[in-house]
C-alpha cells in the first residue's frame, strides 16, 4: 500500500511540473537548471567578492611659498595657497591684500614641484601691482619658487591668453598641462596669471565679473628645470 501511495504521489508531482513548464515562457531545460541550482548565501558572496575600499582624494598642500622673478623685479612675493579656482572670491581677497594666490584642488592646481600645473595669480594694476610687469616676461626667463627647504627653478616656455567669459578658455589655464585640457601631466609646470585690464580698456572692453575682475588674463607658462636647497 505504501509503495502505491508513493508512486501515485510521484506521478502527481510529475504532472504538476509538466503543467507549470508548459505555461512558462522560459525553456524547460533552463527552468530545470535554475530549479536545481542551490541559493548562494549572502555571506559567502561577500567573502568571495569583497567590496573595494573607496580611494581617498590626494591631500592638498597649502604650505606657503615665495615667488621671485629676477628679470621683472619680483622678489620674495608671498604666495598664499587655498582650495578653489583662479580669481574666485577667496583668491581675489588674497590678491587684494597685495599677495599672490595659488588655487589648489580639482578646480585649481598643485603645489610647486609637483607633477601638474602650479598656478599663481596676482594683481597688475591694483594692490601694489606685484605682477605689473608680467606681460614683459620673456620665453627663457627663470622663475624661482621657494617652498619649505627647496628652491624650484622654472623656465618660461610660452604664453596663454584666457577669457573668464568662456569656460573652455578657463580650462586652458587650469589644465594639468597648461593649454591642453585632458592631457595627462608628466612634469611639473607653472602658470603665472595677471589681469589684462589695460589691454581690455584699450580695446573698449570694460566688462567685469562680480568681483571686479576684467575679462582677460595674461598668462606665462613655464616648466621645472631644477630643484635646489633653499
Structure description:
The chain is α+β, with helices and mostly antiparallel strands. The chain folds into 2 domains: 2-48, no CATH class; 65-229, Sortase, Chain: A (Beta Barrel). Helices cover 26% and strands 30% of the residues. The chain has helices at residues 2-22, 28-36, 42-48, 89-96, 167-174, 197-202; strands spanning 65-69, 74-83, 100-104, 116-121, 142-147, 150-163, 188-195, 216-229. An 8-stranded mixed sheet has the order 3-2-1-5-6-8-7-4. The chain is globular and about 45 Å long. The chain starts with a helix and ends with a strand.
Instruction: Classify the secondary structure makeup into a structural class.
Output: alpha+beta
Mean pLDDT across the residues is 81
Assigned CATH architecture of the largest domain: Beta Barrel
| Strand segment count | 8
What does the largest sheet look like?
8 strands, mixed
**CA-to-CA gap between the ends?**
102 Å
Percent of residues in beta strands: 25-35%
Q: Class of the largest domain, according to the CATH hierarchy?
A: Mainly Beta
Indicate the multimeric state: single chain
Q: So how many helices? A: 6
Uncertain ranges: 1-57
How many structurally independent domains?
A: 2
Helix content: 25-40%
The Rg value, from CA coordinates, equals 33 Å
Q: Strand sequence of the main sheet, in spatial order?
A: 3-2-1-5-6-8-7-4
Describe the global form: globular
The sequence of SSEs as H and E is HHHEEHEEEEHEHE
Full CATH superfamily name of the largest domain: Sortase
Task: Output the CATH topology of the largest domain.
Answer: Sortase, Chain: A
